Amino acid sequence: MTTATFRPAAESTLSRTVAGTSATSRALASGSEPLRHLAPNWFAVVMGTGIIANAAATLPTQFPGLRGAATVVWALAALLLIALAAVWIAHWRRYPDAAHAHGSNPTMMLFYGAPPMALLTVGAGTLLLGRDLIGLRAALTVDWVLWSAGTALGLLTAAGIPYRMITRHRFDADSAFGGWLMPVVPPMVSAATGALLIPHTPAGQARMTLMFACLAMFGLSLIAAFITITLIWSRLLHHGLPAAGMVATVWLVLGPLGQSVTAAGQLAQVAPTALPGRDAAGLDVFALIFGVPTWGFAMLWLALAIAVTAHARTEMRFNMTWWGFTFPLGTCVTASTVLYAHTGAVLFAVTAVALFALLVVAWMLVAGRTVHGILGGELLSPAA
Fold this sequence. Notes:
This protein is mainly alpha-helical. The protein has 13 helices and two strands, in the order E-H-H-H-H-H-H-H-E-H-H-H-H-H-H. It has helices at residues 11-19, 24-29, 44-58, 66-94, 96-104, 114-134, 136-168, 186-197, 205-239, 254-270, 277-312, 327-343, 346-376; strands spanning 4-6, 169-171. It is globular and about 55 Å long. The relative contact order is 0.15.
């Protein structure tokens, strides 16, 4: 079997591939088929939208109208998920060659982690917010379906994508970038969102099994993510920033950091319903001992991400990697919220609210650019 060598030295090509962007206006005007180039990274739109709703639902300070607004955002994320899923299925049926090409591309295949995380995010929002509209029973049914599908797909990407990276491609020392985290983060999202389902699982072995499954996925994703983050840190120190079109992927490191703190805290909260007292108490201590230091590193990385983005801002043109500003930042909001619930420290509450405000601003900017790009015809075309 031949292997393809991937050299990020040609980062302009990498940037265009990850973004999946170019001049769709020309494509649409010329009567071509822009949906041929629909890629899995588009599900980041659902992730980045849904995380706002989920973060708002649990924010330490609940402003008047916040829950209603969060419910509207959750509904928007759900509609986006349905629309994208339908279009993506049609894309696979109509353009199987293009779909298979995404799975073979050493960069785009990484973003197969986005669809399962989109499913998990909307599923959690259904239980947190959708229950007000459709009732608890229906919300549980929807969440179980989306969580099960997202978890199965996430475990597949966590194992399958690294396998393809190892066996089908060859990467240079300066290849690592934030996108390498995308395939291994979904099990962490499953762990965090699965915690919401544990109290609704039949008591006994079923509930305990779900608890341990979430803990196992927490560890699976955490160790893989820490290894990958080390590679990314080394790449940045030894080779500098990626091309301007890829700078937004630096923010992706916040995803596993914030989500791991969220998962540890949420699993500790529900542990007394699933585990013996001693084990539940141990998890409660672990959520604090693990959560605060990891949160501290996440704040360091957030500062670095903001700094390098400001440094490259004049050269950054909009592409789909900008959605990396949203979901990872949202996990830092939920991480801060969970730590506030565990400690009562105002530091975490203030941070959660401040980061949520930043998240909303980032989402408005990126969503507005995305809508403009679609209407103006600058998205959904082959990388030029």
